[in-house]
Amino acid sequence: MDPLVLVPGLLCTEALFTPQIAALAANGALVSVADHRSDDTVAAIATRLLAEAPPRFALAGLSMGGYVAMEVMRRAPERVSRLMLLDTTARPDLPEQTENRRRQMSLAEAGKFAQVAPALYPLIVHESRLEDAALRNIVLQMAEATGPEAFIRQQQAILTRPDSRPDLPSFSCPTTVVVGAGDRLTPPDRAREMSELIP
Fold it and tell me: Which DSSP category does 148 fall into?
């Protein structure tokens, strides 16, 4: 079994994957979580991931992590044995999404970072979990651990990411695309588009 590299989403830490890491480790899997907080471009994040990853590995990315995973596939497809894209999109942002990101970055720059995660929470969890205090606490703790400076770097990386749709037909490793039916940020039609483009 190849080692697995996980890439979290925006404002998420390795805590996002705690249950999965425990379950996989119990079955002998070697799992690591990529650093997606230290660089301000998707290309730099992917370069760091490849420098720290095993020579050959399976790769799974959630949301922003999916953008990074697709960049890894552009740069070193021969090193990835299997790929999973979770709740992500190959498309660049729409203008209103860009505007929202810049507004969130402005809040962080103005010392109002504490407002960002509570505002995002309803968009990143299923509507049935909106009142789940334990889940909300995990999300807020991950945001706090990320901090405003890393959040701004992450948003800059997302804003400048390329359109990955032209690259998807070249993906040759076994690939799984997963999306939640209630995902509002990267809805099922985006996952369907990727799935149809990946051979």
Answer: H
Six token digits for residue 149: 């400076």
**pTM score over 0.70:** yes
Backbone angles phi, psi at 86, to 5 degrees: -115, 125
pLDDT for the residue 1 = 84
The two tokens of residue 31 are 């799992």
CB atoms within 10 A of CB 58: 20
Kind and range of the H or E run holding 151 = helix 133-159
Q: Which amino acid is at 87?
A: D
Q: Output the pLDDT for position 181.
A: 92
> Where is 62: in which H helix or E strand?
strand 57-62
H-type alpha helices, 29-94 = 42-52, 64-75
Mark the ranges of the chain whose per-residue pLDDT is less than 70: none
